[in-house]
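Why do we care about 3D structure at all? Because function follows from shape, and shape follows, mostly, from sequence. That is the central idea of this module. The next example makes it concrete: a single protein chain, its amino acid sequence, and then its structure expressed as tokens.
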Amino acid sequence: MRPGGPSDIPPELQDLITFVRKHSPYYQKLWKDVPAKGAARLQDYPIVDHTSYWAANTSLNSKVITQPQTNGTTNHPKVTFYSKDELRAASQQLGAGIMAAGIRPHDRVANLFYAGEMYGSFLMHVLSLMDLTIPIVHVPIGGSCTSEATIQYMRETSSNIVFATVTTLVKLAEYLISLNESMPDVRILMFAGESFYDDQRGRVGKAFPAAQFRSLVYGSIDGGALGYSINSEDTRLHTVSKPYIILEIAPDGSTPTSKSGVPGTVLVTNLCRTLQPVIRYPSGDRAEWVDYDAGLFRVLGRDKTGVRLGPVTIDIVHLREIIWDAIGSDIGAFQAVITREDKKDTLTLRIGYLPKDPVATKRVIEDSLHEVRPMFRQHVEQGLIGSLRVEFLRMEAFKISPKTGKLAELIDERPT
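And the structure:
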């Protein structure tokens, strides 16, 4: 049924909404203006506001979950609650995504996701591999090892499938390239948690020359397994993980569309989550439909990716394109850092590339930025924002989350 049709509420969704409305104080308040008998369409229910949702979801006396709690804290760690049955269902759905990404019987899977500190990615992939119906070997390396140790473990176990963040894959590639080595026996690099840009593929492909690049799954601990990988040519393409997920793409942030090629905010409704409900929850990403009826969509990146310096806004995607065009080569990593210095917002671009002539390369990048965003140059000349800074770094010099292994593309170090 297309969005906005005469009946957008299937029975299983109506049952979930009725249950949640009765048992979740947060959703009771969120839906206070929705008639007691319910709405005719899913889009008539308000979308979840992240700030209020997570403020209400304390570990003790959460107002989001649908069951009373007996222990926890009133502080605000970002904790997602799963029942045992829900966790098993989520791992099975993730397992289906792994199968769709191309895993085969007797593959040897190096799990390089990060474990501990209440992060769920490593655990979820342990559980999902256990639920597969084919025989595989799980190599639980984790994400905290050095690149040297990780490569050693992978070689000792003949790992031919890799589960990792993109940042981890780039780090491993840089390590191998520095030694003039490669790992031609790796068949598929399955990534999750970060976008895999074209300018990173060359470097990673050099270190793993026979490997395909596949999205492991599109999803999150908050929302679940939302979409399954389609092919290795366009790793952004996924199919909605039906019948567990209802995925909306809303160009205005609230009203869904079924038109192809129209970017919008991704809104998630998970029909399997009743303990901590997820109904019209923004995933934080933008996407577009490729074929609505087939559930085929393309992930376009994070929903809020603008670098704002004073009145000047620059899209992260455009910054990356400027750097790629200026360098004319693959880069290992990229970060945009905003600081506050001399009472001015200042942008620093950190680039995982070591040019022969850093000064000339910086000049090309700066000229390209001024051409694309003349407002940036004007505000520098007027003394309203700081001049552009460019740093060329090795991969190990980047700021990477020690908890998740991800590389933040945008770091705002301005005082709040």
